[in-house]
Write a structure and sequence with these properties.
3 domains, binds iron/sulfur cluster, alpha/beta, Rossmann fold, 365 residues, five-stranded parallel sheet
Length: 365
């Protein structure tokens, strides 16, 4: 028997927004409990409204492991998130990313060969296995989580980075943190580690651009990666807001630079930013340094507060934006028709190693 062909995507771009939304609702209703839609806070509103559960990477990672009845986990986020959902869900469950082009430029800044080669190079200077805990930000590929799992390391998110670093330092005296230098630096600084005890590993340079002495002295070795969205926020933006709005509270994401985080009143993950603003009194003024879709949603949700975007230019995650209603509809309608489009399947050996690292993270929360 020949397999029917999957429903094509292109005709969906000819539908009106209303028609498309009606079809998404219909497909969702037909699929019922068999499909759960997870939506990251940075998703555009048109897609976010259809999520059964919303949250940051940590919350969604946990949810993925707590929905055993859903055969399909449709992840409206980026590639590494769907990988985590695949790793933490049961073997019968299938994680789906509606658009395979929804990646994360930060996650792409560290890959397994580069991290292995850094590990070996550092290993020529100090005994890595007894002295260094590798910690990867959840914004990384599954094989890097696997690397951490196999080398006594773990994973962190922007919600729990300090707790995870404390866990790491209880075991070994140094940390190799990748791929986001800013989250690593900001979290370590908040734990009282001085900037002098942190070094930056530049993967394109011999020995990471570091001397043996620097490696021996360092407590934290930071990978030279960053988020192209959060690096747009500058200390001058904070100064400007404080000048024109003296009572304003500045809250930023720890993927912003050290200088920005030092000047802010508060820093936290998307969940933590949201709860800080939600719990604030009516009439309070906020300038927020994180992705635009989240800030616009908070503005809309809380008209009794004055909420501003910290940067004068648009800072949007263009890869998150790849998930549009057409791709969502396409993935859902194909499920209704018996096709799984864009399944995310981490090879079992990598998934087993990565799960060790993820489980260590989940155990310290
Ligand atoms: S906002 Fe930055 S870190 Fe988050 S998914 Fe987009 S590129 Fe990656």
């Amino acid at each position: 028997m020949t397999k029917p062909t999957p429903i094509p995507l292109e005709p969906l771009y000819e539908l009106s927004d209303q028609a498309l939304e009606a079809r998404i609702r219909q497909a969702k209703e037909t699929l019922g409990e068999s499909c759960v839609i997870l939506g990251h806070h940075y998703q555009r509103e048109e897609v976010y409204q259809f999520a059964d559960f919303t949250g940051d990477s940590l919350k969604l990672a946990r949810l993925a492991s707590q929905k055993p009845d859903a055969r399909y986990i449709l992840f409206c986020g980026v590639h590494f998130m769907a990988e985590v959902a695949d790793i933490l869900s049961s073997p019968e469950q299938i994680a789906i990313l509606p658009d395979m082009a929804a990646g994360c430029s930060m996650a792409d800044m560290a890959d397994l060969p580069a991290v292995e080669s850094a590990w070996q190079a550092i290993g020529k200077v100090i005994d890595v296995e007894s002295m260094v805990t590798p910690v990867t930000y959840v914004n990384s590929m599954a094989d890097l989580k696997g690397f951490c799992g196999d080398h006594g390391g773990t994973v962190c998110t922007s919600s729990n980075a300090e707790k995870v670093l404390a866990w790491a330092f209880e075991r070994r005296e140094k940390v190799l943190f990748f791929p986001d230098q800013h989250l690593g630096r900001n979290s370590a600084a908040r734990m009282g580690i001085s900037l002098d005890e942190m070094v930056l590993w530049k993967p394109t340079q011999p020995n990471g651009g570091l001397s043996d002495e620097q490696i021996k002295k360092a407590k934290v070795i930071l990978w030279d990666g960053f988020c192209s969205v959060h690096q747009m926020f500058q200390p001058a933006h904070i100064d400007l807001f404080r000048q024109k709005m003296p009572g304003v509270q500045i809250t930023v994401h720890p993927e912003c630079s050290y200088e920005v985080c030092q000047k802010a009143d508060h820093l936290g993950s998307t969940e933590q930013i949201q709860s800080a603003v939600r719990n604030a009194p009516s009439g309070s003024q906020w300038a927020i340094g994180t992705e635009l879709n989240l800030v616009n949603r908070l503005k809309h949700e809380m008209p009794d507060k004055e909420i501003h975007f910290l940067c004068p230019t648009i800072c949007m995650c263009s890869t998150m934006f790849r998930i549009d209603t057409q791709h969502l509809c396409w993935a859902l309608e194909n499920l209704v028709a018996g096709h799984v489009v864009n399944p995310i399947s981490v090879p079992p050996a990598v998934a087993a190693s990565a799960k060790k690292a993820l489980d260590r993270m989940l155990s310290v929360l």
